[in-house]
Amino acid sequence: MNRDSRSWQPSLSTRVCTDHFFLDDFQEGDLERYHARANPETRTLIRLKVDSVPNTDRRTGSFANPLVQTMSKRPPPKERLVEMQPAGSTDGIDIEQDTTNESCSNIEPDSFWEIDELYFSETDSEDSQPTDEVDDDDFDTGLHNEDINSSFSEEGDFIELDDLELDDLTDDDEPVIDESVESFTTNACWAIISVPLLLSLFKFCPECGARSVIKRINCAGFGIVVNYRCYGILPHEGVWRSSRLRQKKYECNLVVSAAAFLCGMSYSVLESFMTCLSVPYITCSSFYKNNTTNLYPIIVDQWTSMRTALLESRSQLEHVDIAGDGHFDSPGWCAKFCTYSILDIKTGAILDFFVAQKGMYRGDLETFACKEVLLNLVSQGLKVRHFVTDENTRIAKLMRTFFTSITHNYDIWHKARLVKRKLMEMSKKLPKLSEFVAPIVNHFWYSCKKCAGDPKELVERVHSTLLHISNHHAWTADPFEPLKLQLQKERNEKRKKQIVLTSEKLYPYFHKVKHCDHSSRVKHRTLQGLKWFKIESEEFTSLFKYFTSTRFISSIQLCCNFLHTGALEVYHNVRLKLLPKRTSYSLNRMVVGSMVIAIEINKNLTSNRKEFWSYSKSQKKYVSKSRVINKDYSYRKDILQGMWDYVGEGKEPRSIATMLKESQYVKRTIPKNITGLKIPKKSTLLDRSRF
Hints:
By secondary structure, the protein is of the alpha+beta class. It has a domain at 412-559. 37% of the residues lie in helices and 11% in strands. The chain has 22 helices and twelve strands. It has helices spanning 28-35, 77-84, 112-115, 143-152, 182-187, 195-199, 251-262, 267-277, 284-315, 365-379, 393-401, 412-429, 437-450, 455-469, 481-494, 538-547, 550-556, 566-578, 587-603, 634-649, 656-662, 682-687, and strands at 212-220, 223-230, 236-241, 245-246, 249-250, 320-328, 337-344, 350-357, 384-389, 407-410, 609-616, 621-628. Strands 8-7-6-9-10 form a five-stranded mixed β-sheet, sandwiched between helices. A three-stranded antiparallel β-sheet has the order 1-2-3. A two-stranded antiparallel sheet has the order 4-5. α18 packs across α19 (587-603). The longest helix is centred in the middle third of the chain and has 32 residues, at 284-315. The N and C termini lie far apart (90 Å). 27% of the residues are buried. Mean pLDDT is 76; it is low at 58-173.
């Protein structure tokens, strides 16, 4: 230590070499044990007394340390390192070391290895030797690791890490951090650094500050392990790791695997990203093993507690209005999973969901998933008044036969989309009808809002569209009597059993709605370039047949409560971020991923929203939309902190399959394949003829 500046102040990491102490400064028991050792290769701990004071007069040329005062002056480090090596071997030591190290300038080469036996550490037992055998699954043996080892590794023995203690990985002397950089250390826990710049720090020993040589470099997943040898007054070997260990698991591997999952990054994407950056990474098996063992149980616990709190608060209410919709894991008819989610219409919170896998249930997956999740909610004491779904006839039958106490409603957004689709198909053959598509759809929304829950009034308001487009805005008599009787005759010809009704009982009839709600000037459609349809025209007849069909009338009656599932469509869009349809997952992965998305949606219910204009290709105009700004992702830190606590406790790993069965998310045995057929041999498939 050579400090000429008077402004210098010692820190917790300041070191003083043994040259500055006398014989009386060392503990006598340690010195006796050092001289009485039977095996010269045994390392002995020699400690200083509490009241020892170093000798500052080092320029006299004499050494106070009795262990080195009898040694003659040794050659410079460059020559000394060459003499230390066996013939024809360099032992991985960098010969181009600086020759200005004063602390090693007065030791003879013959006595060097004797001094090397002094090992100043907390313990001198053999059990304290470090080891690098820490979970072989975390080590990636790909080409990226070989490139790094070939550039920086040296010949020599690799330090074993069999009996590594966790306390040996942490320094007792914490670094002194200036106030100006405290904010950086608080917000940043990890960083990407350059390997050559990192290795340049090992020119000097991290423990004593003497010259050191890198013996070997190994990549432990995302972490780096550097083995070095110090050639100071007390030569020793050490291991530096870029990440701490938790239960023999590198923290960097755990946190990157968990963060990639929470952000919707699959292993293939992570592998491509790290390969592009030339950064070492863990293997695929370690990636999924870390998440399955350490991360999934924490997500299940957090979602279970959130779900329990939501259901307890809703069960105390007099009634609850919910919406449900199914989401398949792939487009078309090749889906493997169907996730049916339930949303609270009033608050927009995701209350529960259920994932049905093909092969576990026979028939329509969406119907079975809907039944299972409704049974779970009813068993929790939830008093459901209205249940809103899309126009699914199987679910409608399920509600009529199984859940008779719950009022089933159709989503007006889905129904309006179906009406628009039907009108657009009709307008391809009847171009004049295209001008009335948007007004008719808008009037459907208006009718659902104004009917006040009365299905009969809703039907009359929707049928008033026929009067409006035929230039009838106030009516007392029925102008459609001839047309209704004609359509009845045509329909009876197709039926096996004829139904004869008077015109008063045939749709459309008007008992509650007697006029249009618009002002008088709207009826002059010629001012806007539009003309009214005549009752005898083909366009009006096509609309009349569609609006008076039995299926259309029965379906719009379920839209009288003006409820829709727009928030569920947003939820399904967010699901694609974590569970994209182009990737196949296991059932456990689908369930846990759905939990993460539900937690994210529920955490951002009160977030600020921003309105913006966007061009709609379907409507061919600019429309107003809203999106959440400054989303709350604090749940990710809570999950990671729960994972740290879970791993740090050292408990036995919990089975994610058992946890999902206990939480009623997996109620049946998962089949080995979704077809239920035995997989044939490859030779059988190749020998199969086309005949």
